[in-house]
Amino acid sequence: MSSPTVLKLGGSVVTDKDAPETVDDERLAALADAVAGHDGPLVVVHGGGSFGHHHASAHGVSRTEGSGDPAAARGIAGAMEDLNRAVVGALADAGAPAVPVHPFSLAARDADGDLSLPAGSVATMLDEGFVPVLHGDVVAHAGEGVTILSGDELVVALAASLGAERVGLCSAVPGVLDADGAVVPRIGAFDEVADALGGSDSTDVTGGMAAKVRELLALDAPAYVFDADAVAEFLAGGEPGTRID
Amino acid sequence: MSSPTVLKLGGSVVTDKDAPETVDDERLAALADAVAGHDGPLVVVHGGGSFGHHHASAHGVSRTEGSGDPAAARGIAGAMEDLNRAVVGALADAGAPAVPVHPFSLAARDADGDLSLPAGSVATMLDEGFVPVLHGDVVAHAGEGVTILSGDELVVALAASLGAERVGLCSAVPGVLDADGAVVPRIGAFDEVADALGGSDSTDVTGGMAAKVRELLALDAPAYVFDADAVAEFLAGGEPGTRID
C-alpha cells in the first residue's frame, strides 16, 4: 500500500457546536467536494462536535474517566454513528468512495490506558480504493468500562500504524496561533511554542492544542493545522496553516 | 476472561424474511428476555435476514463474489447497522448490557479469502461486563473490494479466537434434521449426516446446513442447533436440538 494521507475534520468544523446534534450541512458539502477531488489513498477522521460531546458529558465519560453503564456506551456510540452517517453520506454525494469505520468496534484500551487499534480493516479498505471514515467514539477500556477515544488520538494512531505520508487537521482556527493571534508557520520543537500554548505543564488550558502539537511532533509524517478554507490546498499537496514536523 | 458463550440469532429468526427490512418485533422481544436472563460472558451474533440479503443480491455481492462499488458497501453495511440497532435496542430494553460491534469496521480478508478478526475489542467488552452484538456484514477483501461476511462465519471465528465454552445457533428449524425430518440429537462426525444433508460435495443445496455442520465440528467447543423456543434452555446450560461436537 502506498502511504495514505490522514485528514481530520474537527467536530466544530462539521457540526454546529451551539445546537445539539446538528450537522453544518453547507460547510460539510464544501469539505466533501474538496475530499472527493483528492487523488490517492486517504483516511478521514472526524470529531464529535455537538453530537458526541453532549452525550459524553451527560454520562460523565472522558478519555480517562470511564463508565460501565451500557446505556452510556450505546448513547455516545449511537450519536457518533449518526454523525458518521451524515459525514459519509455527504462525502458519497460529492463522489468520494467513502465507507464507515466505527472505532468502538475496532479498538480497545488496556489497564494502562494504552490504545490498540488493529490496522488490517482500514489498510485493506485503502488498498481496495475506499476512503475509510472514522470518528471520535467510546472504546472498551480494561477496568474502566468505556472511555472516550478522541479524533485526535485516532489520527495519531492511524498515522503511525499506516505509515501516513501527510497528516492534516482541519480545525476552527487557521493554524497554531502565537500569543498575538498570528499563525505560526512552522513548529519543529515544542519549546518554540510552549509560551504561546500555555507552557509545557500537563494542564492543558488551551483546549487541546498543546497536547495536539506534542503528539503531532512525535509522528514521522509532517502534520498541518489549518481551517476549512484550506482543505483543498492541503489535499493538493500545499502547506497551509502551521506545519508541525 | 472466562470462556464466553457465543449465541447466533439467525436472520430468519429476528426478521420477517418475506417483507424487506422488517424486524419481527414480537419474536425479538421474546429472544431478548431470554438473553437478558443469562448470567456470564455472552457474545451475540445475528444474521441479515430481510435486511442484508436484499442489498447483497441487488449489488451482486456474496462471500466469494466481491464489489469495488462503495455504494454497494455502504448499502449493505448501512442496512445491517439498522438491523443491529433494532437488535441491540431490543436487548437493552430487556435489560441486557448489549453494545454494537460492526464487523466491517473490524475484519478483513486477504487475497486467499482468509478472514482476520482481531479479538481485542470484543474480549475487552466481555471483560467489562458488556454483551457485544455482532452481525453479518460486508468485509474489505484484498483484490475483491468487499465480500459478504456471514453470521455463521463470525460465530466460528469468534468461538475460536475467544475460546468459547459453548456455541448456540438459533435457527428457523429445531435442529439438524435427518432425511425423515426428525431432529438428529447428536453429530460427532460429518459422515453420520452426510446423506441427510445432501452429501459432502461442495455444492451446498441445503441452504448452508452442511457447511455449517462441517465448520462447527472443527471447533473445540460443543455447538447446538435449535429454534427460537429453545434459546432460554440453551442459555441455562441445557442441550436442546442437535449437539455437534
From TrEMBL, chains A, B:
Positions of the Aspartate/glutamate/uridylate kinase domain: 5-218
Alphabetical UniProt keywords: ATP-binding, Isoprene biosynthesis, Kinase, Nucleotide-binding, Transferase
ATP-binding in keyword set: yes
Binding locations of substrate: 48, 53, 151
GO molecular function terms noted in the UniProt entry: ATP binding; isopentenyl phosphate kinase activity; kinase activity
Protein origin, superkingdom: Archaea
Broad EC category: transferase
Classification via InterPro entries: AceGlu_kinase-like_sf, Asp/Glu/Uridylate_kinase, Fosfomycin_R_FomA-type
Coiled-coil regions, chain positions: none
Residues annotated to bind ATP: 8-12, 49, 208, 212
Residue ranges of the region described as Disordered: 1-20, 54-73
EC number annotated for this UniProt entry: 2.7.4.26
Site (Transition state stabilizer): 17
Catalytic activity: isopentenyl phosphate + ATP = isopentenyl diphosphate + ADP
Keyword check for Kinase: yes
Protein purpose: Catalyzes the phosphorylation of isopentenyl phosphate (IP) to isopentenyl diphosphate (IPP). Functions in an alternate mevalonate (MVA) pathway leading to IPP, a key precursor for the biosynthesis of isoprenoid compounds such as archaeal membrane lipids.
Family, similarity comment: Belongs to the isopentenyl phosphate kinase family.
Name of protein: Isopentenyl phosphate kinase
Organism annotation: Halosegnis marinus
